[in-house]
Amino acid sequence: MQRLFPNTLLTLAIAMALTSPQSAQSAENLDNDESTFETITVHATRSSRQINEIAATVSTYNEKQIDQLAARNIRDLVRYEPGVSVEGNGRYGLAGFNIRGINGDRVLILLDGVPMADEFSFGPFLSARRDFIDIDTIKQVEIIRGPASTLYGSDAIGGVVAFTSKDPSDYLQDGKTVAAKLKLGYDSAANEKLLNGQFAGVAGDWQWVIGATQRNSQETHSYFTSDNSTGTNRQSSDPQDNDSRALQAKLIYQPSDHHRLTIQADSLKGNSETQVLSSVDTRVRGVLIKESEGDDERERQRLQLSYQYIGEHVLLDKASLRMFVQATDNTQITKEVRFGLATRQSDSPEDLYRQRSSEFSQDNKGLIMQADKQFSGWGQHYLIYGMEWQQTDSEAVRNGSTKTREGALLPEFSVFPARDFPVSEVVEKSLFIQDEIRFMEGKLSVSPGVRYDTFSVTPFSDPLFENANPGVDIAQYDDSKLSAKLGTVYKLVNNVSVWLQFAQGFRIPPFDDVNIGFTNFAGGYTSLPNPNLEPESVDSWEVGIRANTDSTDWSVSAYLNDYDNFIESRTMVGFDPATQLIQFQATNRENVEIRGIDGQISYYPGAHFDALDGWRVQASASWLDSEDKQTGQQIESILPAQLVFGIGYGSEEEPWSVEVVATAVERDDSQFNSDPASPELFETPGYMTLDMLARIDLTKHAVLNLGLFNITDRQYWQASEVRGRTVEENLARFSSPGRSVSANIVYHF
């Protein structure tokens, strides 16, 4: 907290505590951010709209649904979302989202409109990931499938996952001026204990909410949990101790229906200590690793100011302004005891103490302005227009040392400390406009939109970069992009509508690919910068049909995404006979195509049969395929087909509910090796798991949520966890947990 806003949370907490509830005004009479419109989804169109009115495939989760899923992290959140997954595990934890086969920084993650930091990995000792959101500080999640650059610019080329933090009005109901929520949870898959608390109040024109979450856990288990072996034969996950702390404070001042000012601050800090037993008793260039430990820390801090105005004017009915600063830091330290090197002090091999530390930090700040205007003309119009400015500053540094038992330093093959890319500043500026036009008394809706972005990457060299990368030239990178979209929704009858959308997306070249500089003389290779990279781009077509009746809701959509200039960050481009080094460089792939079908149905038989009142049947499915036009093969990040089927009983009005969910996943056949002499890559077998979710209202104010997962104790792998690994490897350590249980108690008072 000291780096970005050392006293902000404390100041806000004190201010909230001193704001005593002297007014009888409740949150029911106070507007929230989207009070003037019916809110189902906000981020899919940058305005509040029912999902049936949107020409896109969007999923939403609210706070109660998150609790009922017994979810402990972002992966659990999308457990039953075909075509969406969260990648990553092991020492460095969860990475980010994969939506329709597109992953990494190609999927934009937002928290209250603020983008999360980029992923950055370099070598075996640095993997900075994107798990910086505690889901128990969240009131709503929206998952937008497909390109959304017209609305959100770069990094939304594959989709958007938008998180919205909790507001005071989420707790202050029925005339309350003070309210609180307490949540206790446990998950056996990682032996995790959870404590979350939220405290909200209202007094006159002021509202406030403060919240905190504490989590303590061990490693997420593989299918095997009692293996004491080391090295490549190990089947259990590496032992790990984790703890994380999330804090949130939000203060709202609303003197009238026209003005609303929000100040919010939040932070998340996590620590992990790992015994990397899977590396112990293995050899690196003939050197035996006897001990290996990881000590990793991640931290994110944010301060945000938002203002909203509602009033009838010629140019706008509503205007919003959002300013933010955010700091994200990753520090990862590896300590090893190695045996097998002779030193100057001795001609015989001895124990050597080797340490590697890697740091990656990214600070971003921004200004977002938006205006909304409704008017009549040729149809009924809902116009949105605005601008964005964002600056992102990134830097990384590696350090290391090797010592003898007596503490004498030994020479290294690499220069330390070192930067593998220069300190980089990325500035993005954009203008956007979108109109939603309704004709034929609302039966036909057409939504054209366009966005213009300019961006620049400015490197700043310093001795840390120059000493480690002599002779490497760095370059400024500037470009611009125009993105367009057109969506249309037509109501065939009152409860059936069809929709079609064309959308473009793009992603600017990563700052490190533009100006990377790294040479490993011991490994015999070097990485070259490429300031001539083209931005990635996509043209996306999607068509769908939706219907809802008293007993059934269903939808089906089909899409085709055509990606150009896909950036492959590490491509072997040649061999330099002068230096005897193999050369790697980021390059653009010519063309990648992804196509697929999504579908979902919910059926309530009680609408037709009284004896089945309270029962529900739900199913959703996703199938997708891909082709790299250059190789003729699928891209490796493609997701296998998935079907989720559930049968449940009970509604929110009932004192209890239960649901049994089956998940079937097809075999992953996207892995291939272009070198016939190399070992065959492992293809994840298909599998089916069975889960049960239950809710019990213990009292008027207390709810127990239970989850029993993988009831049949099936051994299986998620495709993303074994991507690129061979059939000759022992992959047991990468398997998913066996049977596990998760539970939480939520108490409102």
Question: What does this molecule look like?
Answer:
The protein is mainly beta and 749 residues long. The protein has helices at residues 8-18, 63-68, 74-77, 149-152, 463-468, 511-515, and strands spanning 58-62, 84-88, 94-99, 107-111, 114-115, 120-121, 127-128, 138-145, 159-165, 178-187, 192-203, 206-218, 240-253, 259-275, 283-284, 287-310, 318-343, 346-377, 379-403, 423-439, 444-460, 477-493, 496-507, 518-520, 525-528, 536-548, 552-576, 581-603, 615-628, 642-649, 656-665, 687-697, 702-709, 740-748. The strands form four sheets. It has a 22-stranded antiparallel barrel. The protein has a five-stranded mixed β-sheet with strand order 1-8-9-4-5. Strand 6 and strand 7 (127-128) form a beta hairpin.
Shape: globular
Count of individual helical segments: 6
Distance between the termini: 30 Å
Provide the CATH superfamily: TonB-dependent receptor, beta-barrel domain
Task: Report the sheet with the most strands, covering strand number, pairing sense and barrel closure.
Answer: 22 strands, antiparallel, barrel
Beta content comes to: over 45%
The CATH top-level class label: Mainly Beta
Q: What percentage of residues falls in helices of 4 or more residues?
A: under 10%
Could you name the CATH topology?
Answer: Maltoporin, Chain A
CATH architecture: Beta Barrel
DSSP summary, beta strand count: 34
Radius of gyration: 27 Å
Which segments are poorly predicted (pLDDT under 50) over 5 or more consecutive residues?
Answer: 1-39
The secondary structure category is mainly beta
How many domains make up the 3D coordinates?
A: 1
* Overall average residue pLDDT: 89
